[in-house]
Design brief:
Strand content: under 5%
Shape: globular
Oligomer: single chain
Structural class: mainly alpha
Largest sheet: none
Order of helices and strands: HHHHHHHHHHHHHHHHH
Helix content: over 70%
Distance between the termini: 27 Å
């Protein structure tokens, strides 16, 4: 690829279509998985007669989708930090926390307020059981980012609370991130530490889970390895431009790994048994390779992928709010008789409505709040970096 078409992931604030597509793919798999779970809870036998691999590929890849999210998040946080402060060792801890708060807190606080009201109103599917600690315990876990730990100890929370496990993993990592950058950002210790997280990831999903099925999927180490992969990808690309041949090789290898994990997941589970914890690692490596290629080449997405691209750009908003749509529409679908011919229509409808809700909230809630908070702190693009302008900046 010609040098003129390449995008420096550190020097540019432009959105990267390839990365947004990966996020769109990730949110697609999460939505498909959660719709599938609602249908299974309602005893709708919609998978009967379908090829098992097709079912696995379409509706059982939610965890892999989250792994892709983690890899993308690690890359974007590290690359944007390098843009803002030129070096990880110069990261401003206070500004970093302000940026995370402005981006994450407005929608999260709104979500928790609505979930609390639904719990107090005893709305089915939104009541936090006493066995898991009740509303107060759930709120503390959500606000201190240990929903995953609470669920591993006391059982699953309702669906709209349960999804916060991934935010717990991500934000715990980012709580430590600026301090680690300040301490180790000048030398190779930062890379060594990130590599340690990557190597420990499979153990977090296997040996260190101690047979707890929730902790096997939701543990900190089990998610931080993919975040670490994304961070390492950004560091590796900092002020470096791989050759055209190298990018082609990297893209091909990443595509093969991700296709293997997503489209041939039943075979992947046989080759990489759950007891090894390696399955998610392979998905993270594949995603990181494609992230590197997308960031370096500046590849532009064909218009046919525009819906997926837009979903990727609103993935945070869709992720936090999609369970409202899934639960409500699943209840309506079951009430109308759960016709098997209508199942594909139901899946599509949930995805469309969830995407519309996420886009609406981004435009009128999270992005304006993000911008307002930054203006209150008197921080502009030259200091903290503006990330809220549509089609001009990365949103995470």
């Amino acid at each position: 690829m010609a040098q003129s078409t390449q995008v420096n992931p550190v020097g540019s604030w432009s959105r990267v279509d390839g990365i947004d597509l990966l996020r769109g793919l990730a949110i697609f798999f999460v939505l498909m998985n959660h719709v599938n779970m609602q249908l299974l809870f309602a005893h709708v036998p919609y998978t009967q007669g379908l090829p098992k691999q097709l079912v696995w590929s379409l509706v059982w890849n939610g965890q892999q989708g989250v792994q892709i999210f983690f890899a993308v998040s690690g890359f974007l946080i590290t690359s944007t930090s390098l843009r803002r402060w030129k070096s990880l060792a110069q990261v401003s801890v206070a500004d970093f926390y302000r940026l995370r708060f402005a981006r994450i807190a407005p929608l999260l606080v709104g979500l928790l307020a609505i979930l609390s009201l639904l719990h107090l109103a005893h709305v089915p599917h939104f009541v936090v059981r006493p066995e898991t600690g009740g509303l107060g315990r759930a709120l503390v876990a959500a606000l201190t980012f240990h929903v995953n730990l609470l669920e591993a100890r006391r059982g699953y929370l309702p669906g709209s609370w349960d999804i916060l496990w991934s935010l717990s993993v991500e934000e715990t990592f980012y709580f430590a991130f600026p301090w680690v950058c300040r301490l180790f950002g000048r030398g190779r210790l930062m890379i060594v530490l990130l590599l340690a997280f990557v190597l420990l990831g499979p153990f977090g999903r296997s040996v260190l889970a101690h047979g707890n099925p929730v902790w096997r999927e939701y543990s900190y180490l089990g998610g931080i390895d993919a975040i670490g992969m994304g961070c390492l990808t950004a560091i590796a690309l900092h002020e470096r431009t791989p050759s055209r041949a190298g990018l082609w090789l990297l893209g091909a290898a990443g595509g093969v790994l991700l296709i293997f994990c997503l489209a041939f997941s039943r075979i992947a589970y046989v080759w990489l048994p759950e007891r090894t914890g390696l399955y998610m690692s392979v998905a993270g490596v594949g995603a990181s390779m494609l992230i590197a290629v997308a960031a370096q080449t500046g590849w532009r997405s064909p218009r046919i992928f525009l819906p997926l691209l837009m979903a990727g750009r609103r993935s945070y908003e869709i992720y936090l709010t999609h369970m409202f749509v899934v639960i409500a529409m699943a209840a309506g679908f079951v009430a109308l008789g759960s016709a098997m011919w209508a199942v594909p229509v139901f899946f599509v409808a949930v995805i469309v409505v969830s995407s519309f809700l996420g886009d609406t909230l981004a435009r009128f809630c999270s992005e304006p709040a993000n911008q307002w908070l930054r203006s209150r702190w008197h921080e502009g693009a030259t200091q903290m970096g503006s990330v809220v302008k549509e089609n001009e900046a990365v949103a995470r």
